[in-house]
Specification:
alpha+beta, Dna Ligase, domain 1, 5-stranded mixed β-sheet, 4-stranded antiparallel β-sheet, 12 strands, 21% strand, binds magnesium ion
Length: 409
């Protein structure tokens, strides 16, 4: 059955919230940025965009392009509040809501026709409800999959509603530039252009084998996207979310020792947030922004989910060595943890820790999982920490615990 997917994206979100709270700013070039000197533009009203101001641009550049702009600092808690209101409206239409960021979401409205009419009708009703109840404007894309819906919402901005009717996916995609495809950045775009590929239609006509030869697995993926194929489901919050923290520094960091200290404090904050949300994650991602605003991310996926600050810190240290941080000064560091699982859904960890600690092949019912578990060391450390917390440093004497817990006795 054909699916009905909506991509909803609030227009110039932070700037729109600021204008909502201060109506006298309406019609003015409003630019939200961390600080005018060192910050990065996080949102620009459409009036500001006329001057060439864009998100992620250094605030100093924005200031040069649009000196008359109204520069405002970020008020993240206020944006979060507005976002929560909007997402609550989405959830009245379907429980299958996947937040992509504070202002973007996918909704799966397949089978909602009897309640809300066609997918297009649902999109229209959501747009009206958001405008009426929050004063914000959301652009919508409606299509049979996520990737098409996202392209569609972008094409209609601002205040857009673009529908890709089932069966017309190819006609919709073909004329668009290849840069619209997910995963086509400047580098891939350049390589494709040298092959004479400029539109998605051009790409579709390249034999699949040739794409694979030139780009490997990525080429195969692009080939599928060019034909409008994207089977990924809309994933609800827990599956899609990540928890992280980042810091922009007033002065660029130049030595690794300082960076390591910063990573330790970031790891602590992230682990505390994970515990507060009652979740653990398997993928640890380090984000490094160099002094020249070039952003790189490096990630590790663990065999088992963690919420432990020490584990996250060790991953981040490993990842740091895969960057040019140090030789290249750093203005921002961030750590996030994704592939989240509710803590309650985890395998019985205590059992595995015990096996890993005292492993007695003759009596352990399941020695294999522990032996194959690359996250063993991290969890071992945590087990030791916990036991020491409870019983003091002497609590961790081999032989002291197994008798209590061993099901064989
Ligand atoms: Mg947006």
């Amino acid at each position: 059955m054909s699916r009905a997917i909506l991509h909803l994206d609030l227009d110039a979100f932070y700037a729109s919230v600021e204008i909502l709270d201060r109506p006298e700013l309406r019609g003015k070039p409003v630019i939200v940025a961390g600080s005018e000197r060192r910050g990065v533009v996080t949102a620009a009203s459409y009036e500001a965009r006329k001057f060439g101001v864009r998100s992620a641009m250094p605030a100093a550049t924005a200031k040069r392009l649009c000196p008359q702009g109204v520069f405002l600092p970020n008020r993240f808690s206020r944006y979060k509040e507005a976002s929560d209101e909007v997402f609550a409206i989405y959830r009245r239409f379907t429980p299958i809501v996947e937040p992509l960021s504070i202002d973007e979401a996918f909704l799966d409205v397949t089978g909602c026709e009897r309640l809300f009419g066609s997918a297009e009708e649902a999109a229209r009703k959501i747009k009206e409800a958001v405008r009426r109840e929050t004063g914000l404007i959301v652009s919508a894309g409606v299509a049979s999959n996520k990737f098409l819906a996202k392209i569609a919402s972008d094409l209609g901005k601002p205040d857009g509603l673009v529908v890709v009717p089932p069966g017309e996916e190819q006609a919709f995609l073909d004329p668009l530039p290849v840069g619209k495809l997910w995963g086509v950045g400047k580098v891939t775009e350049g390589a494709l252009s040298r092959m004479g590929i400029r539109t998605i239609g051009d790409l579709r006509r390249v034999p699949r084998d040739r794409m694979v030869r030139s780009f490997g697995a990525h080429g195969e993926h692009l080939h599928a996207l060019s034909r409008g194929i994207d089977d990924r489901p809309v994933e609800t919050q827990r599956e899609a979310k990540s928890i992280g923290h980042e810091e922009t520094y007033d002065r660029d960091l130049r030595d690794r020792g300082t960076m390591r200290r910063e990573l330790l404090s970031l790891s602590d904050r992230v682990s505390e947030r994970l515990r507060r949300h009652g979740v653990k994650g398997r993928t640890v991602t380090l984000k490094v922004k160099y002094h020249d605003f070039v952003l790189v991310t490096r990630a590790i996926t663990l065999a088992y989910p963690t919420d432990d600050g020490g584990t996250i810190y060790r991953c981040a240290l490993d990842l740091l060595t895969e960057t040019e941080a140090g030789p290249r000064p750093v203005r921002l560091l961030g750590i996030s943890v994704s592939k989240l699982t509710g803590a309650e859904e985890l395998p019985p960890e205590g059992r595995m820790e015990q096996i890993a600690l005292f492993g007695r092949p003759g009596t352990d019912p399941k020695p294999a999982p522990a032996a194959q578990d690359p996250g063993k060391k991290e969890r071992l450390n945590r087990a030791v920490d916990r036991i020491r917390e409870k019983f003091g440093p002497r609590g961790i004497v081999p032989g002291a615990l197994p008798d209590d817990e061993d099901p064989g006795t």
